[in-house]
Design brief:
single chain; 175 residues; mainly alpha; two-stranded antiparallel ribbon; 8 helices; 45% helix
């Protein structure tokens, strides 16, 4: 079954890679091969490859969600070139503001050269614990940065899953 890697390399059509899931949504999966795309996509127009692939099927969907790696390479630039809106999911870690600033710069470059309509619409905290002092402090710093980049911090957040972290810790001890 083709993945987004084959679609971006133009070895498969987007329609061939779509997998229909229970619940009424479709996905185009990725695998470890997508990491190679960073080195392999070097031809002129590479920033537009995902946009071309998505445009072939976009009319069939109300929304297309593109999940990107936490880096600012060619895959993220492809996503920004394709999308009208960016939602930044982030944890309340110490380097959050630096990462968001770099992402904002990348979005600005994409606006200038590839997609004038792309805009950062918001910042969403994940694995957030409002009872932890550092989380609240990072959120305050992020809210200040959000004013500068004109992208609000979402009032809703995804809570930290203590059970998940405990399970990871238990798994790590059993090795």
């Amino acid at each position: 079954m083709p993945t987004v890697y084959e679609v971006m390399k133009r070895a498969a059509d987007t329609g061939e890679a779509i997998q229909h899931m229970k619940g009424g949504y479709d996905v185009v999966p990725a695998n470890i091969m997508l990491a190679r795309a960073e080195q392999e996509l070097f031809q002129t127009g590479r920033e537009h490859q995902l946009k071309e692939a998505v445009s072939a099927v976009a009319g069939n969907y109300d929304f297309v969600v593109i999940d990107t790696p936490p880096s600012l390479g060619v895959l993220t630039v492809n996503a920004f070139t394709c999308a009208p809106d960016i939602l930044i999911p982030t944890t309340a870690g110490i380097f959050v503001t630096a990462g968001i600033s770099q992402l904002n710069e990348t979005a600005g470059s994409v606006q200038r050269y590839c997609n004038s309509g792309v805009k950062i619409r918001g910042i969403l905290f994940t694995r957030f614990n409002p009872r932890v002092n550092i989380s609240r402090q990072i959120r305050e710093l992020t809210e200040q940065l959000s004013e500068y980049i004109s992208a609000p911090v979402c009032q809703t957040y995804i809570r930290a899953g203590v059970v998940v972290e405990e399970a990871r810790a238990d798994k790590g001890r059993s090795k």
